Amino acid sequence: MSVTTETSAGAAAGSDAIVDLKGMWIGVAVLNVFYLFIRIYEQIFGWRAGLDSFAPEFQTYWLTMLWTEIPLELVAGLGLAGYLWKTRDRNVDAVSPREELRRHVVLLQWLTVYSVAIYWGASFFTEQDGTWHMTVIRDTDFTPSHIIEFYLSYPIYSIFGVGSFFYAKTRIPFFAHGYSLAFLIVAIGPFMIIPNVGLNEWGHTFWFMEELFVAPLHWGFVFFGWMALGVFGVVLQILAGVKRLLGKDGVAALIG
């Protein structure tokens, strides 16, 4: 049964709007404002208090930030996954076509916020870190740039990636029955950059390597980072579900 042929009783049961982008815009706005604040903080205290890891001000402005963000991110990630699992649809096969379509739209919003988070972490702050290395000689692995890049922005986008996966797995029939390879790549691939950070820092300490982005030690960042492109496969799966739910008449109305 498609959305176009759904009974009025079923439509009344799903009173929520199918397309409501308010949550997505709030998420994107919060992320952008937060990272702009972080970038301003770095601009002020990176040079003033971030060049000597033995200085008291480094402990105050940077290590305090490091030891605060890590447990908060761990609690947030586990809490989000636990919440999505606890509130899962326990009879997902009985969901109405209208509600299933709404959930597909919500999933697309999850992926949009995830993509914004990946941009800040894997693009903006990662490229900035290369500039930092070419400018400042570091005396610790926990530089201001790394504290923001590795231990703040990477876990944050991973939280959204895992959240997207759990949302789909617990609320959409197609993803609930089995595992989407594309979705696993999207959720796990960029997350694996975090363990690669440990390998990267160990290698730099052990071999005293120059900060060349083409060095083999950095290949893992590229390998796992490009796995984010698996999102196109996930979107194709979502669009296939939307097409099935709309039916021929609904699709014709959209493209006509």
Would you summarize the structure shown here?
With 256 residues, the protein is mostly helical. The protein is 75% helix and 0% strand. It has one domain: Glutathione S-transferase Yfyf (Class Pi), Chain A, domain 2 (Up-down Bundle).
Structure description:
- The protein has 256 residues and is mostly helical.
- The chain has ten helices and no strands.
- It has one domain: Up-down Bundle (Glutathione S-transferase Yfyf (Class Pi), Chain A, domain 2), CATH 1.20.1050.50.
- 75% of the residues lie in helices and 0% in strands.
- Helix 3 (56-86) packs parallel to helix 5 and helix 4 runs antiparallel to helix 5.
- The longest helix has 39 residues, at 97-135.
- The protein is elongated, with a radius of gyration of 22 Å.
- It starts with 7 loop residues before the first helix and ends with a helix.
- Residues 4-14 have low confidence and may be disordered.
